[in-house]
Write a structure and sequence with these properties.
Elements lengths: L13 E6 L2 H9 L8 E4 L9 E4 L1 H5 L8 H7 L4 E4 L2 E2 L2 E2 L2 H14 L4 E6 L2 E5 L1 H10 L10 H4 L2 E2 L9 H9 L6 H24 L3 E6 L2 H8 L7 E3 L5 H6 L12 H10 L12 H8 L1 H10 L17 E6 L9 H26 L1 E14 L12 E4 L4 H20 L6 E15 L4 H8 L33 H4 L3 H5 L7 E2 L5 H10 L6 H22 L6 H25 L13 E2 L7 H4 L4 H11 L7 H5 L23
Parallel strand pairs: 2-4, 9-11, 10-11
Antiparallel strand pairs: 1-8, 1-10, 2-3, 5-6, 7-8, 12-15, 13-14, 13-15, 16-17
Helix pairs in contact: 4-8, 5-8, 12-13, 14-15
Bound molecules: 2'-deoxycytidine-5'-triphosphate.
The site of 2'-deoxycytidine-5'-triphosphate has 12 residues, from strand 1, helix 1 and strand 3.
Cofactor: Mg(2+); Mn(2+)
Subcellular location: Nucleus
GO cellular component, one term: replication fork
């Protein structure tokens, strides 16, 4: 349920930028002969000509809609060009569109905080940029206004007037405007400049909404498409919302919106104004009630997140009509393909952006034989994500079996799957300091764990010994930054051989109470390998992806199928670490968030160093994992709910 966020004291300038018929534009850039032509991008599945997923504005003029299939689109518009999405692994490959979206994001992010909301949508917080413009170069002459800004649609101004452009120019540099409108005018000019840059540098057009909050900016960005922008001055908010159907509002498209219609008779956002905050709270709870009361007045405190990367990675495939999957072998075949793609994407996210995904989720659309109208849905299932293609494949299949078991409720009946998808979510940045934990746990003991690449990939140069060798090609990225290298203080996990005597002295002086290295050594030399062995023998290693499994993953990817066997057999698990026998560690480098990710035995010890010991919560500490009836007790990922069990 939606919750009201506190609004900032100062007015903000927020933009929502949405690319026009995005996939079509990407295809038109690839093949300029398609420019200006009725064109649509169709799904890989060619059933009835393939489902349309993007339609050019020229084709829309003929009545072609996204809900159509290729055959129908051809009937409506015989001249339409149908372009199939690129294909890989027997399904759509969206990488082309993703990277085209990234090109646009890179330009938009130059002017303020930028949140990538989808493959072709971005929120921008332009407050600072607008304030700066107002201070340094405010728009003061109508003639100087950029043509693209002069074409803005400003809610509340006459939109069909023959002199619209003149009116807009005057509005954008009104000397008597209040400070909110002045900021908004600057925001509109900045967005127009950005859109011009996007067009020049990528050949793509986009549309935008500019308002004082995200909610309003998003609501109007698609109001005038293609290649236009719409501005919402505060004075026009009430009129705009008065006639806005409730279902158009984000978060009101589903059950909450239906309840507003059915239970309160609310059809437009404006209708909400007749209810007191108390009444709405009574009906929908305190938080949602307040949220509804506020959105009715155009108030929303939601912030633009500083995020240029997607929140999750998903790979899916539909199997319409006769293509539906009806046996486990075909499901496994497709899941393997989807998981392979997912694995590649999360691995590349890890390598390029140092981000780790924590949760694997499987969704499916399934119907029982002879019960096609049944309302029972296949339950989505999740488990901790283990890096490495075969592990993801294995877990996804188990999730599917578990979901199918729940779905069928012990009935021995046939089933049919029309869509399958796997998602990697709960993605977080590896916090600064994690690399030191990684090194600390894994770095030096290349022989101690299967997660470490074999010695051939470990350079002899001791100065490079601190690196985390995710993959050979990734060495550079994982190397500590120059500043880290130059800064003598930041030298976590340096073997005693490398650590100068002075530095060792400094640490022991600074942290005289840090005496816990022996158990770490124990852990490194045998504890972890024993734990690893135990989990392997338990049948499911619930390892934390940020520690061992990301490394394992790389290896698995690297060695492919043959190496997977080697990976499973983990022949060198029990070997003693070689080459180093003592460890120095700068406690200041430890990020508390990272400590939570460590195995309990190490966690307890490190927590003792970095903060005064708490009264132990024995219950939690003694048994951090969720005990499952099967043996999948996950003590590294105890916060996750494991649907495999
Ligand atoms: N997309 C898809 N499947 C859908 C909807 C969209 O694969 N069911 C893809 C194709 C679109 C892109 O996502 O080009 C962006 O979707 P939008 O909803 O933003 O639509 P468009 O950008 O195509 O058109 P518009 O100009 O109306 O925003």
């Amino acid at each position: 349920m939606p919750v009201a966020r506190p609004e900032p004291q100062e007015p903000r300038v927020i933009a929502h930028v949405d690319m026009d018929c995005f996939y079509v534009q990407v295809e038109q850039r690839r093949n300029p002969a398609l420019r200006g032509q009725p064109t649509a991008v169709v799904q890989y599945n060619d059933w009835k000509g393939g489902g349309l997923i993007a339609v050019s504005y020229e084709a829309r003029g003929f009545g072609v809609k996204r809900s159509m299939r290729g055959d129908e689109a051809k009937r409506v518009c015989p001249g339409i060009n149908l372009v199939q999405v690129p294909v890989a692994r027997g399904k759509a490959d969206l990488n082309l569109y993703r990277s085209a979206g990234s090109e646009v994001v890179a330009i938009l992010a130059s002017k303020g905080k930028c949140e990538r909301a989808s493959i072709d949508e971005v929120y921008l917080d332009l407050t600072d940029a607008a304030k700066e413009m107002l201070l340094q170069a405010p728009p003061d002459s109508p003639e100087e206004i950029l043509i693209e800004a002069a074409k803005s649609n400003i809610l509340g101004l006459p939109s069909d007037a023959s002199e619209k452009e003149k009116i807009v120019r005057a509005w954008l540099c009104r000397p008597d405007a209040d400070s909110e409108d002045k900021l908004l005018a600057c925001g509109a000019i900045i967005v127009a400049q950005l859109r011009v840059r996007v067009l020049e540098e990528t050949q793509f057009t986009c549309s935008a909404g500019i308002a004082h909050n995200k909610m309003l900016a998003k609501l109007v960005s698609g109001m005038h498409k293609p290649a236009q922008q719409t501005v919402v001055p505060s004075s026009s908010v009430q009129d705009f919302l008065a006639s806005l159907p409730v279902k158009k509002m984000k978060q009101l498209g589903g059950k909450l919106g239906s309840s507003l219609q059915d239970d309160l008779g609310v059809e437009t956002i404006g209708d909400l104004l007749s209810f007191t905050e108390e009444k709405l709270q009574e009906q929908y709870g305190v938080n949602t009630g307040t949220w509804l009361w506020k959105i009715a007045r155009g108030i929303s405190g939601e912030e633009v997140e500083d995020r240029l990367l997607p929140k999750s990675h998903g790979c899916g495939k539909t199997f319409p009509g006769p293509k539906a999957l009806k046996n486990s072998a075909s499901v496994k075949g497709w899941l393997d393909q989807l998981c392979e793609e997912l694995s590649e994407r999360i691995q590349s996210d890890l390598n390029q952006n140092k981000r780790i995904a924590q949760t694997l989720t499987l969704h499916a659309r399934v119907s029982k034989e002879n019960e096609r109208d049944s309302v029972k849905k296949f339950p989505s299932k999740s488990c901790p994500l283990r890096y490495g293609t075969w592990k993801i494949q294995e877990d996804a299949m188990k999730l599917f079996e578990s979901g199918l078991h729940d779905f069928l409720e012990y009935q021995n009946t046939g089933w049919s799957i029309t869509s399958l998808s796997v998602t990697a979510s709960k993605i977080f940045d590896i916090p600064s300091g994690t690399s030191s934990i990684l090194r600390y746990v894994k770095g030096p003991s290349s022989a101690s764990s299967p997660a470490i690449p074999d010695s051939s990939s470990v350079p002899e140069d001791p100065s490079l010994d601190n690196n985390v060798y995710v993959t050979p090609s990734n060495e550079e990225q994982c190397e500590p930054s120059t500043s880290e290298k130059e800064d003598g203080k930041k030298y976590s996990a340096i073997s005693a051989k490398q650590c100068s005597a002075n530095e060792a002295k400094r640490i022991s002086k600074k942290f005289p109470e840090v005496k816990g290295t022996s158990s770490i050594l124990k852990f490194l030399s045998r504890g972890q390998s024993a734990l690893h062995e135990k989990r392997k023998s338990d049948g499911l290693i619930c390892s934390h992806p940020g520690l061992e499994s990301s490394l394992e993953a790389s290896r698995a990817e690297e060695h492919n199928a043959s190496a997977q066997g080697a990976d499973r057999s983990s022949t060198n698990c029990g070997a003693e670490p070689s080459g180093s026998n003592a460890w120095m560690f700068n406690v200041e480098d430890i990020d508390p968030a990272v400590v939570e990710e460590l195995p309990p035995e190490i966690r307890r010890e490190i927590q003792g160093w970095i903060r005064p010991p708490k009264q132990p919560n024995t219950k939690r500490r003694e048994f951090p994992g969720r005990k499952c009836s099967c043996r999948h007790v996950c003590d590294l990922c105890c916060r996750h709910v494991c649907d495999l069990c």
